[in-house]
Design a protein that fits this description.
The chain is an all-alpha fold. The chain has helices at 24-40, 45-51, 57-72, 83-87, 94-111, 114-138; strands at residues 12-13, 16-17. It is built from six helices and two strands, in the order E-E-H-H-H-H-H-H. The protein has a two-stranded antiparallel ribbon.
């Protein structure tokens, strides 16, 4: 690892070399900034408040930093399963995912240069769609007609 918190090898995401500016420090800034927004949001804050005790937030944030590090920097730090906790949230729907994506977009645009914000958003949009499909399937609902949320529609 270099002093920037990133390996010296070239990382390729979706066929494009990762910008050098994206490192662990930027990921930490995105994760912490995003969850600061979540914890103030009228729609999403209650969901997190009901599931994460105040003294457990540092562990949750560390886990989310590990997740994004593994996702974008190709580290092997995250070994969890992100879907099951979301399956357990009754009533989780498209409005929640739209808000999550909107807050995430605001955060990455504030913290990251445009090409890095785009990388984060592309991945977040895919994750949201995958989770929406899995939640519907888990609930016995049809997945036909579940369209991906487009960034332009946020």
């Amino acid at each position: 690892m270099s002093q920037s918190g990133r390996s010296s090898r070239t990382i390729v995401v979706d066929g494009v070399p990762l910008p050098d500016v994206l490192d662990e420090t930027m990921i930490r800034g995105v994760v912490h900034g995003f969850y600061d927004e979540i914890r103030r949001d009228d729609l999403l804050a209650p969901i997190f408040r009901d599931r994460i005790e105040p003294d457990k937030w540092p562990q949750h944030l560390a886990k989310m930093c590990d997740f994004w590090s593994a996702t974008l920097l190709r580290t092997s730090r995250y070994d969890g399963r992100p879907l099951p906790p979301h399956l357990a949230i009754a009533g989780l729907g498209v409005a929640h995912f739209r808000r999550w994506l909107k807050l995430f977009r605001t955060t990455v645009r504030r913290i990251c240069p445009p090409e890095v914000a785009t990388l984060f958003m592309d991945r977040a949009l895919r994750i949201a769609h995958s989770f929406r499909l899995a939640i519907a399937f888990n609930r016995g609902e049809t997945t036909i007609g579940i369209e991906p949320i487009a960034e332009k529609d946020l």
